[in-house]
Design goal:
Belongs to the RRS1 family. By secondary structure, this protein is of the alpha+beta class. Among the domains are: about 15-90, no CATH class; about 130-180, no CATH class. The protein has six helices and six strands; from the N terminus they run αββαββαββααα. The longest helix has 23 residues, at about 55-80.
Length: about 210
C-alpha cells in the first residue's frame, strides 16, 4: 500500500507518521497472525482479549475492530487487482477459501410429468415458439408473410405457379355437365315441388281426387 497517497487530515503543524509507523498502524503486530479470506471479505482474529474492567470493554473492542478493519482493507489494496474506469475504482476479489454452509437444504429434483416421461422415451423434442411461428420469410416479396391462410405463403406460391397439373377426372366431370346442360330443352328448368310434395304427404279431397 502506498502510504504517501494517504491524505493527511488535521493540523498541518503536527508531525507526520513515518512509513514504518503507518505499516504498524495498518498491520498491527499480533501474537497470532490474522487469517484472511479476501473472497468472502473475512478476517478472523484468534487473539484472546485480556481481562477487562467494565469501563475498558468498549474502548478495547473498538480498538480490536479498528485493527481488523485496517488489516483487511490493507490486504485487499495490496493483493487484489485494482481497476479504474469511468464508473470509478473497483477491486477484483479472489476465489473464496472457505466453503460456507447452505442456509437452506438442496432443492429436490422436480418429478417429470407423464408427458415429459413419454417424450423422453420416444425421443420427442420440445420446439420453441419462435421455431414454429405464424410468420415466415418470403424470398419473392422479401417480406414476412403468414404461413397459412388468406395472403399466406402457401397461397402466394400457388398463385405464382405458371404450370398447373390438370386433374383429368375433374375435367371429364365438367365436360359431362356442360354437355348435359346443352341437351336440356329450352324453358325446362327445375320445377319447384309443392308443399304437399315437400312434406312427403298426399291428401285426398272429399270427392276422391288427390289434392
Amino acid at each position: 500500500m502506498d502510504t504517501q497517497s494517504i491524505p493527511q487530515t488535521g493540523d498541518a503543524s503536527k508531525p507526520t507518521r513515518s512509513a514504518a509507523e503507518m505499516k504498524e498502524l495498518i498491520y498491527p503486530n499480533k501474537p497470532i497472525p490474522y487469517t484472511i479470506d479476501a473472497g468472502h471479505l473475512l478476517l478472523s482474529d484468534a487473539n484472546p482479549l485480556p481481562s477487562l474492567s467494565p469501563s475498558s470493554i468498549e474502548p478495547t473492542l473498538q480498538s480490536a475492530a479498528r485493527d481488523c478493519a485496517q488489516s483487511l482493507i490493507g490486504h485487499l489494496l495490496q493483493n487484489c487487482p485494482i481497476v479504474r474506469d469511468d464508473t470509478g475504482v473497483s477491486l477484483t476479489l479472489p476465489t473464496p477459501q472457505y466453503q460456507l454452509p447452505r442456509e437452506k437444504p438442496i432443492p429436490k429434483e422436480k418429478e417429470k410429468t407423464k408427458w415429459e416421461a413419454f417424450a423422453e422415451r420416444k425421443g420427442i423434442q420440445k420446439r420453441r415458439k419462435d421455431e414454429r411461428s405464424k410468420m415466415v420469410w418470403d424470398e419473392v416479396s422479401h417480406d414476412w408473410v403468414k404461413r397459412y391462410g388468406f395472403g399466406g405463403k402457401a397461397m402466394r406460391e400457388k398463385q405464382l405457379q405458371w404450370v398447373v397439373e390438370v386433374d383429368e377426372k375433374e375435367e371429364r366431370r365438367k365436360v359431362a355437365e356442360e354437355e348435359a346442360e346443352k341437351r336440356k330443352p329450352r324453358g325446362s328448368g327445375p320445377t319447384r315441388p309443392g308443399k304437399a310434395e315437400r312434406s312427403g304427404q298426399v291428401f285426398k279431397r272429399k270427392n276422391g281426387k288427390k289434392g
